[in-house]
Specification:
Elements: H1 8-37, H2 41-68, H3 76-89, H4 95-123, H5 125-130, H6 134-161, H7 169-184, H8 197-216, H9 221-250, H10 257-275, H11 282-313, H12 316-339
Helix pairs in contact: 1-2, 1-3, 1-4, 2-6, 4-6, 6-7, 8-9, 8-11, 9-10, 9-12, 10-11
């Protein structure tokens, strides 16, 4: 029988993602308060832009966590840090001192995102695929650091001297952000907090393809259990959420919807059958090949037939709404599987 328990490394990444989400909520709360307290229109505008980025990136983080497929909780130390920073923000510190603490938090968030990115490269290609949207968050956090340095310079000079700093500061900040863009290269920042349903489904399909390759490409029983455990949970949550959220609104536009339901049911049965087989047996990989064929048949039909129906009959906003509902349903299913 194949174990579907979470691998320790994957749980560690899940915990770090949970840390990032908790810190993201604190960053948003801080920025909302700074905007209220700041009387400088230029700084307030830059803080408002930063707040909008961070609110959007909270949605991106939610997507990454659901796509990753392993649930974690923030570490006790992270929760302690958050509580301590919240006390500082409610204290008699000056605005400069509060923004200084905020910049340290932004640095911590940036490093956490980069660490997850590097850890994903070590753990597995499927993890890299799942956390791809995190690149946006990492890039924008680094850009925010440059902007916060500029804000701190202005507030600090005013606090120490009562005078304005020399001009040219924002130009330097702009140059710093431009330099980051050059380093990142192909990273494109998102303007939406939510992907469309087609984008989410494509991410799931890509991750499944990678997991199949990882399973079939190793003879290490531990790695097989790790990869199959992830594949099992991913497909179960993905397929059930599709049946609940995606197929019902499409049914009126696609006459073969029942065939798609039947394919999903077949794949679910195959997963449960494979789960009972010893991963060291010759039968195991033969069954995995059969499962991959069934999954790929389903994916091909979905991308060829269902995707155009979604594109042609639902607005961009409607596709985002379906994606949000799909993500919520999938997250709930993941939590239920983790609990059981």
């Amino acid at each position: 029988m194949v174990s579907t328990l979470d691998d320790t490394k994957r749980l560690s990444i899940a915990t770090k993602l949970a840390d990032m989400k908790a810190l993201q909520n604190l960053l948003i709360k801080n920025e909302q308060q700074f905007i209220k307290d700041c009387t400088d229109d230029d700084i307030r505008k830059r803080l408002q832009d930063m707040l909008e980025d961070d609110q959007k990136n909270l949605g991106v983080l939610d997507t990454v966590i659901v796509q990753y497929g392993v649930k974690g909780e923030p570490k006790a130390t992270t929760q302690k840090i958050i509580a301590e920073v919240q006390k500082l923000m409610e204290s008699e510190l000056t605005l400069f001192e509060k923004v200084q603490e905020h910049e340290l938090l932004k640095h911590k968030q940036t490093m956490a995102g980069l660490l997850i990115h590097k850890a994903a490269q070590v753990v597995g290609a499927d993890v890299e695929a799942a956390i791809t949207p995190l690149n946006t968050v990492n890039f924008e956090n680094r850009a925010h650091q440059e902007q916060l340095k500029g804000i701190l310079e202005i507030l600090g000079v005013r606090e120490l001297t009562g005078k304005e700093p020399k001009q040219g500061l924002w130009a330097r900040v702009k140059d710093g952000v431009a330099a980051l863009t050059g380093v990142v290269g192909s990273v494109v920042t998102r303007t939406d907090d939510e992907m469309t349903i087609r984008e989410l489904l494509l991410m799931d399909h890509t991750k499944a393809d990678i997991l199949f390759m990882e399973i079939l490409g190793t003879n290490d029983p531990h790695k097989i259990q790790e990869y199959f455990g992830q594949l099992y949970k991913d497909i179960k949550a993905h397929g059930t959420a599709e049946e609940q959220i995606v197929y019902p609104p499409v049914r009126q536009y696609y006459e073969h919807t029942q065939e798609i339901y039947a394919q999903t049911d077949e794949v679910m049965e195959m997963l449960d059958e494979i789960k009972l087989i010893n991963p060291s047996s010759s039968e195991f990989k033969a069954k995995i090949e059969q499962l991959r064929t069934a999954v790929r048949t389903h994916i091909n039909q979905e991308e060829k037939d269902i995707f155009p129906k979604l594109r042609d009959n639902f607005s961009h906003e409607q596709q985002k709404q379906i994606a949000s509902e799909f993500k919520t349903a999938k997250s709930k299913l993941q939590e239920e599987m983790a609990a059981s």
